[in-house]
Write a structure and sequence with these properties.
CRO Repressor, alpha+beta
Length: 175
């Protein structure tokens, strides 16, 4: 109970200084690695982001992890993320291995139960996405697509350009 609020000034000083250094390191590496590091995250990006957060916290709070070791591990994760996403951008085969494909889960007035089951989506989640887009009736919707970044994209029947894209290019995603 003695250390509930305070242990010693040296430990506190180390935490404050390390926190500032980890913060600067993460800000700089995020800036250097580009927009992808802070964009809407797909599963792959999300996992790397959680790992970086965990490494940062461990580096700040655990005395047996020096800043150089924790910082090096954070930089390596950013570098690996950069290299993997760079390679995925030029290799469709590699991209399809690490990223999920979008999938149509509602089409022309019908829920697609097999697609919804495969993506573990409920009717309530689709209806929530509709409401957030200001849509109150299923009849207004041409399609709902579950994107690779786990967002739901709603294409209304009034949007002919997007509806054409769905019918021409995304219907194979109904598998």
């Amino acid at each position: 109970m003695d250390m509930l609020f305070f242990d010693n000034i040296d430990k506190l000083g180390r935490i404050v200084i390390t926190a500032a250094m980890v913060y600067i390191l993460v800000v700089v590496t995020t800036k250097v690695s580009g927009k992808r590091s802070t964009s809407q995250l797909n599963n792959f990006d999300w996992i790397v982001t959680v790992m970086i957060g965990s490494l940062g916290a461990s580096t700040i709070l655990l005395e047996d992890i020096p800043f150089i070791e924790g910082g090096a591990s954070i930089v390596v994760l950013y570098l690996l993320q950069f290299l993997v996403t760079k390679y995925a951008a030029i290799s469709p085969q590699f991209n399809s291995v690490i990223l999920s494909e979008p999938r149509i889960v509602f089409y022309q007035g019908e829920y697609l139960p097999d697609a919804m089951h495969a993506e573990r989506l409920t009717h309530q989640e689709l209806e929530c996405a509709m409401r957030s887009e200001g849509i109150s009736r299923l009849s207004e919707i041409e399609a709902i697509i579950f994107e690779s970044d786990a967002k739901l994209t709603i294409i209304t029947k009034n949007d002919n350009a997007q509806a054409n894209v769905v019918s021409e290019t995304l219907l194979p995603l109904m598998r």
